[in-house]
Design the sequence.
């Protein structure tokens, strides 16, 4: 399976994603520069974390207009699998590929810590290796992770089972403790926690590898 | 022509920065401040000289990029 990893100016988790795909999952990966007007043939597009375009104006707002995102939107529209992590989630909401928006954390601080999550949907392409209601530990590192959507959208997300991960200790004020969602078609996942940082026991707190299952679900 | 764009959080969207500013002002003795809301101010210099045309274009810019209309609203002021 081949993963295409989008790199914007300011992306900083692109190499982490490349590392876990090639060295942990033993799959193929390729970087895709934001100016590319064509996507190479890949099975999954990963929009990694970081601070694309310096977070200017709003997080993810400028990245949305880069040439490669027009292709990602087309790819997603034809059913291609897309996963956006942290800043990648922000880019996906700004692009309209996922509903809602990630606002400033209610505590106003950048939060970087291991955080307990609950898997509330294990039927998605991104979470089928988890057990339902399984508690996992995945690291977060963000200043704008406070998920907001209007009531109607929120109701739809909950009703259709589009919430995949929920915080057990809400770190940022997210509505309904939302940490990760999928689109209605189920081929796009956005999540604030960083699964790619918790895939090898040697590198993760408490020697857990909980993030691995997100990627393994795709294989 | 100049366009002044004010982007603010919609009513009902919690503004933690505004809350902190209001509380700080209260600590400084400005108890009369009941609410503070923080927004963005963007100045655009336009080649356009027709205010109707400018209004249409700047509105489009707000909807496409300058504001995220899920949580933000915007106001436009044009000056020649």
Sequence:
């Amino acid at each position: 399976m081949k993963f295409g990893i989008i790199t914007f100016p300011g992306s900083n988790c692109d190499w982490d994603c490349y590392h876990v795909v090639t060295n942990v999952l033993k799959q193929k990966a390729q970087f895709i520069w934001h100016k590319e007007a064509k996507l190479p043939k890949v099975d999954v597009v990963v929009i990694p974390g970081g601070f694309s375009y310096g977070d200017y104006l709003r997080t993810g707002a400028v990245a949305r207009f880069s040439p490669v995102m027009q292709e990602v939107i087309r790819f997603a529209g034809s059913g291609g699998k897309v996963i956006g992590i942290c800043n990648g989630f922000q880019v996906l909401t700004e692009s309209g590929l996922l509903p809602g928006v990630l606002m400033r954390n209610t505590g106003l601080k950048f939060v970087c810590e291991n955080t307990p999550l609950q898997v509330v949907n294990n039927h998605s392409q991104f979470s089928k290796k988890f057990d339902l209601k399984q508690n996992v530990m995945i690291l977060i590192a963000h200043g704008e992770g406070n998920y907001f959507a209007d009531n109607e959208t929120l109701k739809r997300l909950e009703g259709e089972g589009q919430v995949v991960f929920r915080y057990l200790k809400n770190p940022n004020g997210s509505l309904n403790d939302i940490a990760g969602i999928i689109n209605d078609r189920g081929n796009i996942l956005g999540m604030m926690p960083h699964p790619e940082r918790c895939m090898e026991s040697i590198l993760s707190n408490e020697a857990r590898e909980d993030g691995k299952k997100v990627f393994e679900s795709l294989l | 022509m100049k366009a002044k764009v004010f982007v603010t959080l919609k009513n009902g969207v919690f503004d933690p920065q505004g809350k902190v500013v209001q509380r700080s002002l209260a600590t400084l003795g400005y108890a009369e401040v009941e609410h503070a809301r923080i927004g963005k101010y963007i100045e655009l210099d336009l080649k356009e000289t027709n205010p109707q045309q400018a209004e249409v274009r700047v509105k489009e810019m707000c909807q496409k990029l300058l504001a995220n209309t899920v949580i933000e609203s915007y106001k436009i002021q044009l000056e020649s």
Notes: Chain A has a mean pLDDT of 96. DSSP finds five helices and eleven strands in chain A. Residues 2-218 of chain A form a domain with the Rossmann fold fold (CATH 3.40.50.880).
